[in-house]
Write a structure and sequence with these properties.
By secondary structure, the chain is of the alpha+beta class. It has 3 domains: 163 residues, 2-Layer Sandwich (Beta-Lactamase), CATH 3.30.450; 72 residues; 150 residues, Heat Shock Protein 90, CATH 3.30.565.10. Helix content is 57%, strand content 16%. It contains 11 helices and 12 strands. Strand 9 and strand 10 form a beta hairpin. Helix 6 packs parallel to helix 11, helix 7 packs across helix 8 and helix 8 runs antiparallel to helix 11. The longest helix is centred in the first third of the chain and has 60 residues. It is rod-shaped, with a radius of gyration of 53 Å.
Amino acid sequence: MKLALKMTLCIVVLAAVLLSSSGYFMLQKSFDDSLQTVVKQCQQQQLKEKFALERQLFTEQNADIKFSNYAAMLAAQGLSNLSGSGGTLALYVDDNVSLFSNMPVGIGKNIQIAAIASGEAGYSICENDGTRTLLLVSALDVPSSDYKLLSAYDITSVFASRDAQLKALFYITPVSVLAAALLAHVLSTLLTRPLARLEAASRQIAAGDINNRTNIRTADEIGSLSESFDAMASSIEDKITSLDAAVREREDFVSAFTHELKTPMTSMLGYAAILRAKQTDDTTHMAAEYIYHETKRLEQLSQKLMLLMGLKNEKITLEPTLSDSVFAAIDKNPPQKDSAVSLTFKPCGYKVLCDKVLLEDMLRNLIVNAQHACREKGEVVVFCEKSGDKCTIFVKDTGCGIDKAEIEKLAQPFYMVDKSRARAENGSGMGLALCSRIAALHGSQLKIESEKGEGTSVSVALSAAREGENEQA
């Protein structure tokens, strides 16, 4: 998930929580204030009703009518009929005896008695069929009597107003959050754009474009990061340039040194051959043999090293070539003519896309390695198999085989499994490295399979030529 999207989501969640919570608390506070205002108004209204009821009771007393429950009931009934009064009330004596009540059906006696029990300090609200009613209690100041006036007031409008505001908040909040999300996305995209440039630059540098720079100039942490990144890229470029120069110098030195070895080696080989041809004592003859053998090995090493260095940056052209023609060229002039190892080429008639000279050189090296593995006996078979658009050339031998732990190291230059035997046979450890490089130039790689004591199979998969393509001359 991109940073801009993460920032947008965080802002959206934060905006949703803040808007919904703050809106709810504000509405709740407004509702509480409105409810308290209505309660105070109703308390003042009940106080007027109480005074009116008491005045009527005392008027009856002055008319020589004693205080009685009947008189109180008549007074309450008369109060309920007065214009401008609350109209809905109940009169109780001794907290649980109802003298008069015109309360709605939904406000039963149990609810009324519970409201009276709550006392004058508080109030209660009951709900019936969506209607909310405020119940207030007040004691009448009548001598030798315990009368309680219970008044009911409809406050449904207060709750309806709150519900309407909550509904509006329910619709307004998503719209506000959506607007905040769009604005947050735009802002986060603008803020993270320099980071996107940094990411793109790092990818391009990782892909090899070490000259790429971000050049972000902002007076914040991203600007500082950009300057540090560009400085790091410049340092890496300098290091790579110096390393490339050192590698080129080393390669030039190896190429020049290898080339310069040819002249003294040619002389050494000539004089060693003269010494070998003369009748001398055993010690001198052994020394001459050793000089000739080692010089011959050094000559082969220099040739393969020069070829490997030459192939390092070479680009080849792949042309259709009949594999049998490559086999025939090697069979006509085998790598080791005096070898006792049987060498067999199986014709297949397949055309492959290759550089004929390099392919022939690769197969010669593979055959030499296979013959050395067979020592004085065994068989080497070269053949080709086709599968889809690939033709795979195999070089199999029945030699000594290779340990599986050694197989991965065989393509390393100068690596030899059996160094003493390899040197005795003029081996240099460069053959498979050279073959691996030739396979890579053909867009393939060597595949080596071997069992200790049973033999080795080396294969390379080449692209098959399409029908109608002319063979390479």
